[in-house]
């Protein structure tokens, strides 16, 4: 449709037949260059999920890489969700609608900045933008709202004259007394952590503003620390401070300000919380306690951005609904050359546990001021998708950048290309092997549905879900095709945006008197959604997953059907 161009991208014509077994072509050193489609099986011209099909049929990962083709069109459906930070550059209703059309799935509000009144107005704008962008239920896009807490972070005070330059080799005193809160200049820097002199020692490093400014400790006092500037730069007000290798004694996971912000979020009906600087499972429990009974349905996503958080990752993951790989502070707390190791480890463990994982920080940073990203940034986004991230996140690119809509569109394009290059068959086999024997009918049905979708080259999996669990399990096993999740719950629809490959479809009509008729109505709605968005068309094969009785927890029926 004209108002959602990214949902119906043009697709190159399908080669007439499916490829033969690779083993018969290995006689040449460049055998993959000779691979062509044989007369084994013919697929209809309407078939959508065919991009990089040669590579997907490979026997080994190396063969898969050899068969990737830059002239293949990317998949029509983008399975990776895009999270956009909303700020001054993007909080107006027209701009939000442009970003939704470009591909935004989740709107992130950074509570390190701004008042409750400011964020309340932004939430109102987001909801109005969603409701007014289209009246057609087939193209309605549920947009989730995420509250990102300030967390137990350390920040500098207000700078006299808005900014000051710190020169390399100059001496600066770091202070904590409240009387100096607004006196930060080239000689004094105030920080909001009273124990700073207790956790540091001579030779310790202090990093400010994502590591752009570096200080080395030379002397310590009761409430002050003398330092020498090792890496100079321009210091502005309220910048983040990192103390790598220090045990931050007395720094609570949930401050009084965080508790007030979380209560505000519950009252506003946010869908998820991005909990900053999570260092242990107890920190996650403290966030849930602060959300209270009224916020028990809000998803808690733990931001792992410290060495301690990486070391205690397993216990954090077990207590969380998902994880964010927050590479900004993490790249200061651990050596920058180790960040990719931590990223791959955390994404892998989240995939193994079946929990959503977000990759964030500086993904398209150059697009804050440029209309196109660097080549390295494009590869970074693609590799996060190939690693297994459910979501990728934009921060300053959309909050304060000059090209917020272009950044979302670029992220959308890169994700589509990367998803086409995933070796889905190998990934599914590994995920299935890692899954212990289960007597849960919903999980068994999900595994069977995903495997069947590979076998018949399904255009989509249509699932009817009440709580969202069935869609979650299907997403866990990473089908190649999109998952159209039909639900009557607006919150379940929005929260499903965290899951790779899930396209929530909000079904408004009341339940039909006869259960079978209600199932048919919802399945037909899912098929209409898929056809409208270009996932498949009449005559294509889809997998339908439903329950045998009403309610949550009874999904146990899988059908392979042709789209009418």
UniProtKB/TrEMBL annotation:
Cofactor needs:
K(+); Mg(2+)
Q: Which residues form the Pyruvate kinase barrel domain?
A: 78-408
Q: What is its EC number?
A: 2.7.1.40
Cite the entry's keywords alphabetically. Answer: ATP-binding, Glycolysis, Kinase, Magnesium, Metal-binding, Nucleotide-binding, Pyruvate, Transferase
Q: Does the keyword Nucleotide-binding apply?
A: yes
Please indicate which superkingdom the organism of origin belongs to. Eukaryota
Q: Name one GO molecular function term.
A: kinase activity
InterPro entries (alphabetical): Pyr_Knase, Pyrv/PenolPyrv_kinase-like_dom, Pyrv_kinase-like_dom_sf, Pyrv_Knase-like_insert_dom_sf, Pyrv_Knase_AS, Pyrv_Knase_brl, Pyrv_Knase_C, Pyrv_Knase_C_sf
- Asked if the Swiss-Prot or TrEMBL record annotates the protein with the keyword Transferase, the reply is yes
Chain ranges of the Pyruvate kinase C-terminal domain? 445-559
UniProt pathway annotation:
Carbohydrate degradation; glycolysis; pyruvate from D-glyceraldehyde 3-phosphate: step 5/5
- Reactions that this protein is recorded to catalyse: pyruvate + ATP = phosphoenolpyruvate + ADP + H(+)
What family does the Swiss-Prot or TrEMBL record give for this protein? Belongs to the pyruvate kinase family.
Q: What is this protein called?
A: Pyruvate kinase
- Source species: Anabas testudineus (Climbing perch)
* Gene encoding the protein: PKLR
């Amino acid at each position: 449709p004209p108002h959602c161009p990214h949902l119906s991208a043009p697709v190159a014509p399908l080669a007439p037949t499916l490829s033969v077994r690779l083993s018969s072509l290995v006689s040449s050193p460049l055998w993959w260059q000779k691979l062509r489609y044989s007369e084994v099986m013919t697929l209809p011209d309407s078939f959508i999920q065919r991009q990089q099909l040669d590579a997907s049929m490979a026997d080994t990962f190396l063969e898969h890489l050899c068969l990737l083709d830059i002239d293949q069109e990317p998949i029509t459906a983008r399975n990776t969700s895009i999270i956009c930070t909303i700020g001054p550059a993007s909080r107006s209703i027209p701009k939000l609608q442009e970003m939704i059309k470009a591909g935004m799935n989740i709107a992130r509000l950074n509570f390190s900045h701004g008042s409750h009144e400011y964020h309340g107005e932004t939430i109102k704008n987001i909801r109005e933008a969603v409701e007014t962008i289209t009246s057609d239920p087939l193209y309605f896009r549920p947009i989730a709202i995420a509250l990102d807490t300030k967390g137990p972070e350390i920040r500098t005070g207000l700078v006299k004259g808005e900014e000051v330059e710190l020169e390399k080799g100059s001496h600066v005193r770091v202070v904590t007394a409240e009387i100096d809160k607004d006196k930060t200049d080239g000689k004094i820097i105030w920080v909001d952590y009273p124990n700073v002199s207790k956790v540091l020692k001579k030779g310790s490093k202090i990093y400010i503003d994502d590591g752009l400014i570096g200080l080395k400790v030379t002397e310590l006092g009761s409430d002050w620390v003398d330092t020498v500037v090792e890496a100079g730069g321009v210091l502005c007000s309220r910048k983040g401070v990192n103390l790598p290798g220090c045990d931050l004694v007395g720094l609570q996971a949930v401050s009084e300000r965080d508790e007030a912000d979380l209560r505000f979020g519950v009252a506003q009906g946010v869908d998820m919380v991005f909990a900053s600087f999570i260092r242990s499972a107890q920190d996650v429990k403290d966030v849930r306690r602060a959300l209270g009974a009224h916020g028990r349905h809000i998803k808690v996503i733990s931001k792992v951005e410290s060495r301690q958080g990486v070391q205690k990752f397993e216990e954090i993951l077990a207590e969380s609904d998902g994880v964010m790989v927050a590479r900004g502070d993490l790249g200061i707390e651990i050596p920058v050359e180790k960040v990719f190791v931590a990223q791959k480890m955390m994404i892998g463990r989240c995939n193994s546990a079946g929990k959503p994982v977000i990759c964030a920080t500086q993904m398209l940073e150059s697009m804050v001021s440029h209309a196109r990203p660097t080549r390295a940034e494009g590869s970074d986004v693609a590799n996060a998708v190939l690693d297994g991230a459910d979501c990728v996140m934009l921060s300053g690119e959309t909050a304060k950048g000059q090209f917020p809509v272009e950044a979302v569109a670029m992220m959308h394009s890169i994700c589509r290309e990367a998803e086409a290059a995933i070796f889905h068959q190998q990934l599914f086999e590994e995920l299935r092997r890692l899954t212990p024997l289960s007597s849960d009918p919903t999980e068994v049905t999900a595994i069977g549905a995903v495997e069947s979708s590979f076998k018949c080259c399904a255009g989509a999996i249509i699932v009817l879900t009440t709580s969202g669990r069935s869609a979650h399990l299907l997403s866990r096993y990473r089908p190649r095709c999109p998952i159209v999740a039909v639900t009557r719950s607006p919150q379940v629809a929005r929260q499903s945006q965290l899951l790779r490959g899930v396209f929530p479809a909000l079904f408004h009509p009341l339940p039909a008197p006869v259960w079978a008729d209600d199932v048919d109505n919802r399945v037909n709605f899912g098929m209409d959604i898929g056809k409208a968005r270009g996932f498949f068309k009449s005559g294509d094969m889809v997998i339908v997953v439903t329950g045998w009785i009403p309610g949550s927890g009874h999904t146990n029926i899988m059908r392979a059907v042709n789209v009418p």
